[in-house]
Amino acid sequence: MKILGINASPRKKANTQTLVEAVLEGASEKGAQTRLVNLREMDINGCLGCEGCKKHLGKCVQKDDLTTLLQEMTAYDAIVMGTPVYWYHVTSQFKMLVDRLYCFMELEENSETGEQTIRAEFPAGKKFIFLISRGDPEPAEIFPQLYDHMNEWLNLIPLSLGAGSYEFFHQYGAHIDRKSARNDAGLLEKARAAGSGLVS
Fold first, then answer.
1. pLDDT at position 74
2. Is the dihedral of CA 131, 100, 13, 37 positive or negative?
3. Cα radius of gyration (the chain)
4. Under a CB-based contact definition with an 8 Å cutoff, are residues 66 and 46 in contact?
5. What's the CA gap between 65 and 42, in Å, rounded?
6. Distance CA 103, CA 83 (A)
7. Per-residue confidence (pLDDT) for residue 121, from 0 to 100
8. Is the pTM of this model over 0.85?
9. What's the burial of 196, exposed, middle or buried (CB within 10 Å: 0-12/13-18/19+)?
10. Euclidean distance between CA atoms 24 and 34, whole angstroms
11. Prior bond of 144 cis (ω within 30°)
12. Rounded to whole angstroms, what are the CA distances from 170 to 96, 137, 173, 187, 191?
């Protein structure tokens, strides 16, 4: 089994990377082949909205590291995607990756009924884990609705890609301490268990 871990934190070796690595470690201990990708180390751009990918669905026309990564994602059995929360949402690096997944999507219209559906040129049935690290305590006691929009948006990713299964893993109270995940043995054990659970 092949598992890809994607860290979308711009910080080096901070909480999100620690958690992604813990998940991959748990999977590796069960015999999975794992790989970690740090988006901060890559040459990446946002979607241009050029629609060039609709001529060859599943192939982005840009020539950067994300184009290569998008193709590589199709070959993995499971994908672990991690992001910290910046200004009540995902990081810009995470958003650029998700926007570029548009290259796999196409709107189809039934010529008889006019009904529109979305077709995804992305292998269905993959397993996903989403890791979200945030500074607020658990739960967001003062304004819980602050994250409703982000959680709803995150749910759209595996649904759009035809995921076989997916789960969300949250770290709360990280604030500005980039070592808080590393110093939380219980949290790391849960992350490793999540990775172990990916291996079938």
1. 97
2. positive
3. 17
4. no
5. 6
6. 21
7. 93
8. yes
9. middle
10. 6
11. no
12. 21, 11, 10, 9, 10
Q: Could you give the angle at which helices 15-29 and 185-198 cross, rounded to 10 degrees?
A: 50
- In whole angstroms, give the CA distance from residue 156 to residue 161: 8
Spatial separation of the C-alpha atoms in residues 78 and 99, rounded to whole Å = 20
Cα 187 to Cα 24, 94, 106, 184: the distances in Å are 14, 22, 39, 5
| pLDDT of res. 115 | 86
Q: Are strands 116-120 and 105-109 parallel, antiparallel or unpaired?
A: antiparallel
Half-sphere exposure of 180 (CA within 13 A, CB side): 15
Which fold does the domain 2-198 belong to in CATH?
Rossmann fold (3.40.50)
DSSP secondary structure letters along 111-138: TTT--EEEEE-S-TT-EEEEEEE-SSPS
Residues of the chain short of pLDDT 70, as ranges, are: 139-144
